[in-house]
Amino acid sequence: MLSRLTRFQAVAVCAVPLAGLLAAAVFAPLPFSVAQPGMTANVLGENQGTEVITISGAPTRDTSGQLRMTTIEATGPDADVRLGDVIDGWFRTDQAIMPRDSVYPSGQSTKEIEQHNTEQMEESQDAATEAALRYLDRTDDGIKVTLKLSDVGGPSAGLLFSLGIVDKLDGNGDGGDLTGGRTIAGTGTIDAAGTVGAVGGVSLKTQAARRDGATVFLVPKDECGDAKSELPKGLRLIPVTTLKGAVNALTALEGGKGSVPSC
């Protein structure tokens, strides 16, 4: 016959598996990535000693100002992120805790992920070139555009690539710079038709932009809320949905004529 456990004994017995669960939660790797503001690059200039945008088959302009694409840096797909890292990240404005599957495709090796990101960047560059030449109505002019940006993957620089091509070929359409001499930063995917798409990590990208001197940030309209959540002082948000809308907003901002959208 089994004897009944005292209250103290019952608590003691239950505490053993509970302690094990807590230890597992603290020390076991979790399916998250820790992200922070990453590098930015001026697509109108050089990156690691190489021009980001090279155009042949048409005369180009000397530009002033900057168009800076932005990135985030995240822990690698094989990195161990533990409960302490997650708790620390929740209370910091310069970090974000993101599901690993939202940063890296699930079920792939590090090499496969790198290949995937490279392919996305190449597709983004092709789409950005076509969008810019379509916007300028110069798809039949035999213009060749080469885009080079080292150590960056994914599609989120598409909008800035397109704007850089437009600025180098046409500026604001009236002899001036599309940037108006400012440091403009931003993010957003783009397709060949010029539609701007959402990306991740916008609140971290605004911090990277302001750190590197930007005063204006172009953000996909659907991500205004995220961009405003940790907006650095001195950085103006301009929501965009298309390449044409982005060009019009920058032209209005430069000339002081017309309305400039805001989040």
Automatic annotation (TrEMBL):
Single GO term (MF): ATP-dependent peptidase activity
Pfam families: Lon_C
Domain Lon proteolytic: start-end pairs: 154-236
Origin superkingdom: Bacteria
Gene3D superfamilies in alphabetical order: 3.30.230.10
Species: Streptomyces griseoruber
One BP term from GO: proteolysis
Transmembrane segments: none
Record's protein name: Lon proteolytic domain-containing protein
